[in-house]
Specification:
Blueprint: E1 8-9, H1 25-37, E2 43-45, H2 56-70, E3 76-79, H3 85-97, E4 102-105, H4 115-128, E5 133-137, H5 145-154, E6 158-163, H6 168-179, E7 184-190, H7 194-199, E8 204-207, H8 212-223, H9 227-245, H10 251-262, H11 280-293
Parallel strand pairs: 1-8, 2-3, 3-4, 4-5, 5-6, 6-7, 7-8
Length: about 300
């Protein structure tokens, strides 16, 4: 369990799959070390991990592998949200039993719940599992600052929130102002507004896991007062990747897995179906970008 306040860069791991669409453990362990070697402060398994495409057995295995490879070096956050309260409690207990340090919980979104039902949902998870909980605020089930504060006040283990519903920067500011006395605020949405979020009260981000050294560099520079240096890193390394991965719906996983494959971290860039292919022109643009950013990392 995380025993001190979590903050900093907590990348969300992708799930490497082999040619048969099975979890490729060797690549996953290498990906974990790649991020830890970059100096990240924590790691997560969540929507960016295609967790919604994993069976319950695979969720448990994924958690075990990550916890084992991390070996207590940083906290591990596991996404356990679901569209049913009993299912979310089950996922949360499973994450706890397999060594997670914290939970990230997405509110029900298929049939969005009202405020009282959302409180009851989080209370059930908090009562079942003694781990710190991140509320995950996303566009499909946004959490208003007032409700976030109520959740923290009424649910013992609700202690953090990851803000990624738009407008993200304004939402982080509002969340920090209204609920910052009871919730620790993290940013999300791929880290696209990392610096602006830190200015407005965020103490960390949960971005993609392909460029951890850039995110850690930005974190360190902002904390030391070197915002100009932070922006230089941000604009040089993160902006072009974010623009490319946002060019088409569903390309995010494929683009980031291709980056990791190019950098020699994972063996295969396979994304579980359904997933759109990367078109030839976008693939050429990605190849050119990677040669520019990481000329030493060609495969």
């Amino acid at each position: 369990m995380a025993t001190k306040k979590m903050e900093g860069v907590y990348p969300i791991l992708v799930t490497p799959f082999d040619e048969n669409s099975q979890i490729e453990e060797e690549s996953l362990r290498r990906l974990i070390d790649f991020n830890l070697d970059a100096g990240v402060h924590g790691l997560g398994v969540a929507l960016g991990s295609e967790v919604y495409k994993l069976t319950e057995a695979e969720r448990a295995r994924m958690t075990r592998i990550v916890v084992d490879q991390v070996g207590g070096r940083v906290p591990v956050v596991i996404n356990t949200g679901a569209n049913g309260t009993d299912l979310a409690v089950n996922y949360s207990r499973m994450a706890h039993e397999n060594g997670a340090d914290s939970l990230m919980v997405l509110p029900p979104s298929f049939f969005p719940a009202g405020q009282d039902e959302t409180v009851a949902y989080f209370r059930a998870i908090s009562d079942a599992v003694p781990l710190p909980i991140f509320i995950q605020d996303v566009a499909t089930s946004p959490i208003a600052p007032g409700l976030a504060k109520r959740l923290a006040q009424e649910c013992e283990w609700v202690q953090y929130i990851k803000v990624e519903s738009f407008p993200v920067v304004a939402k982080v500011a509002a969340m920090a102002e209204e609920a910052g006395d009871v919730l620790t605020v993290f940013g999300g949405a791929g880290g696209g507004y990392f610096i602006e979020e830190m200015r407005r009260g965020s103490v960390g981000t949960m971005p993609f896991c392909t460029q951890p050294e850039a995110f850690v560099d930005i974190w360190n520079k902002v904390r030391s007062g070197d915002e100009a240096g932070a922006w230089e890193t941000f604009n040089r390394y993160l902006v072009p990747v974010s623009r490319l991965s946002a060019q088409g719906a569903g390309l995010f996983h494929g683009i980031h897995k291709e980056i990791l494959r190019y950098r020699g971290v994972i063996r295969s860039a396979r994304v579980r179906a359904p997933a759109p292919p990367i078109d030839p022109l976008t693939r050429d643009e990605l190849a050119a970008l990677l040669k520019e950013l990481y000329p030493e990392g060609s495969s």
